[in-house]
């Protein structure tokens, strides 16, 4: 009997021990699962907080970009603290002007009980690599030119027609694509025409706006003023558009001369349709730093002329998705002409070749974008000097 009692007692103790171990194991597993869930929640909150901090950086960068594209510099950019709600959390941003072309942006993101802070330094980076294509005029179709210039390079993929109605002389360089022809029967004997064998191809140029559809807000985010076409500027360039980048969704007719002078030194116009200077309307680059970019998805016609009033450091870039037609005297500045179908120069022509910057969002030259075909709309305006995550107590 005593033995039976001892065995029964041992069995009870063993059962209690098994129950205790099992309970501890269940509690441990439950605690592990709870910790895992808590860790996943904390990780998600931390990621959301970082995303909010990054959103704060991007918001201020976009504001600074618009400020610069409005013709202003960073010295009078607002550095007031910015706070905003977004995605169930909030971000706060402090901005410090380090120099006339550099900002330090510190952004704090909060989601739930998690706070993360990032700091970025950005530097204005407007100049693009110089345009290093020496072809002063290049077209994928036909080029006919009435007045070539000494030492200039002219390229037509299919057909190049040379004429000379003026008392000039010198050497010009011409090139065509495979099977292309050069017709120079109307060139004066005083000219030497160097017909290049296997000439280098002109830089490829792509205008994103003509290849894919963009919404109004996307275009405005790139720094453009958006206008629905057709547009008719009967008094020349509206004063509100001076020193701006202008996007016209459709045709643009400019019926009075546009002059770049004084504080009004730069103008970029992109029209998805035709862009015409009608009648006697001229484009005048009346300042040594003047810069004019005219880009058309359709035809680009300048009927009244285009000149630089003796400022041979002014620059102009002309591009057409179809034909460029110059019906009056053009010249006196550094420039390049590019057209998909053809270029027709019907009057005196004197554009110089020199390194020039063509930095236009959405315009890709030689594989390098002017500002939109990249990771964000600030590319081409800012270079990131440094980025780091810092302790939240430093905000």
Give the tally of β-strands. 31
Residue share in β-strands = 35-45%
SS field, number of helical segments: 3
Shape: elongated
Q: What portion of residues is helical?
A: 10-25%
Describe the sheet with the most strands: 14 strands, parallel
Radius of gyration: 33 Å
Instruction: Indicate the structural class.
Output: alpha/beta
User: Which regions contain 5 or more consecutive residues with pLDDT less than 50?
Assistant: 371-379
Q: Span between N and C termini?
A: 79 Å
Average pLDDT works out at 84
Number of domains: 2
Outline the structure in words.
The protein is an alpha/beta fold and 395 residues long. The protein has two domains: 1-126 and 380-395, Pantoate--beta-alanine Ligase, Chain: A,domain 2; 135-369, no CATH class. The protein has three helices and 31 strands. The chain has helices spanning 2-69, 208-211, 216-221, and strands at residues 82-86, 89-99, 102-111, 114-124, 135-139, 142-145, 153-156, 159-163, 170-176, 181-186, 191-195, 205-207, 224-228, 231-233, 245-249, 252-254, 258-260, 266-271, 275-277, 283-285, 291-296, 300-302, 306-307, 315-320, 323-326, 330-339, 342-345, 349-352, 363-365, 368-369, 382-390. The strands form four sheets. Strands 5, 7, 9, 11, 13, 15, 17, 18, 20, 21, 23, 24, 26 and 28 form a 14-stranded parallel β-sheet that branches. Strands 10-8-6-27-25-22-19-16-14 form a nine-stranded parallel β-sheet, with no helix packed on it. The protein has a five-stranded antiparallel β-sheet with strand order 1-2-3-4-31. Strand 3 and strand 4 form a beta hairpin. It is elongated, with a radius of gyration of 33 Å. 36% of the residues are buried. The model is unreliable at 371-379 (pLDDT under 50).
């Amino acid at each position: 009997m005593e033995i039976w009692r001892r065995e029964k007692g041992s069995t009870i103790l063993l059962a209690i021990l098994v129950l205790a171990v099992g309970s501890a194991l269940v509690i441990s597993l439950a605690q592990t699962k709870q910790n895992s869930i808590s860790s996943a929640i904390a990780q998600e909150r931390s990621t959301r907080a970082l995303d909010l901090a990054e959103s704060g950086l991007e918001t201020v960068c976009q504001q600074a970009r618009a400020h610069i594209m409005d013709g202003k510099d960073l010295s009078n950019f607002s550095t007031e603290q910015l706070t905003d709600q977004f995605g169930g959390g909030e971000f706060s941003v402090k901005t410090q002007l380090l120099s006339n072309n550099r900002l330090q942006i510190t952004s704090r993101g909060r989601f739930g009980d998690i706070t993360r802070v990032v700091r970025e330094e950005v530097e204005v980076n407007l100049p693009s690599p110089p345009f290093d294509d020496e072809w002063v005029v290049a077209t994928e179709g036909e080029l006919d030119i009435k007045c070539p210039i000494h030492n200039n390079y002219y390229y037509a993929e299919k057909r190049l027609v040379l004429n000379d109605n003026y008392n000039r002389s010198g050497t010009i360089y011409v090139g065509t694509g495979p099977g292309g022809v050069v017709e120079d029967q109307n060139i004066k004997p005083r000219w030497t025409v160097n017909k290049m064998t296997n000439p280098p191809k002109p830089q490829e140029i792509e205008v994103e706006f003509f290849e894919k559809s963009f919404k109004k807000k996307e275009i405005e985010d790139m720094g453009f003023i958006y206008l629905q076409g057709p547009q008719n500027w009967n008094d020349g360039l509206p004063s509100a558009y001076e020193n701006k980048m202008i996007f016209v969704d459709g045709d643009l007719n400019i019926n009075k001369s546009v002059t770049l002078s004084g504080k009004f030194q730069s103008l970029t116009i992109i029209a998805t349709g035709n862009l015409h200077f009608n009648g006697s309307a001229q484009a005048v680059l009346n300042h040594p730093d003047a810069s004019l970019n005219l880009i058309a998805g359709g035809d680009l016609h300048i009927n009244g002329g285009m000149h630089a009033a003796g400022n041979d450091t002014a620059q102009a870039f002309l591009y057409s998705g179809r034909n460029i037609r110059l019906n009056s005297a053009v010249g006196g500045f550094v420039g390049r002409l590019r057209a998909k179908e053809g270029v027709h120069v019907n009057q005196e022509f004197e554009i110089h070749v020199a390194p020039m910057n063509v930095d236009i969002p959405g315009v890709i030259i030689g594989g390098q974008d002017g500002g939109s075909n990249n990771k964000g709309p600030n590319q081409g305006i800012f270079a990131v000097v440094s980025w780091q995550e810092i302790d939240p107590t430093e905000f």
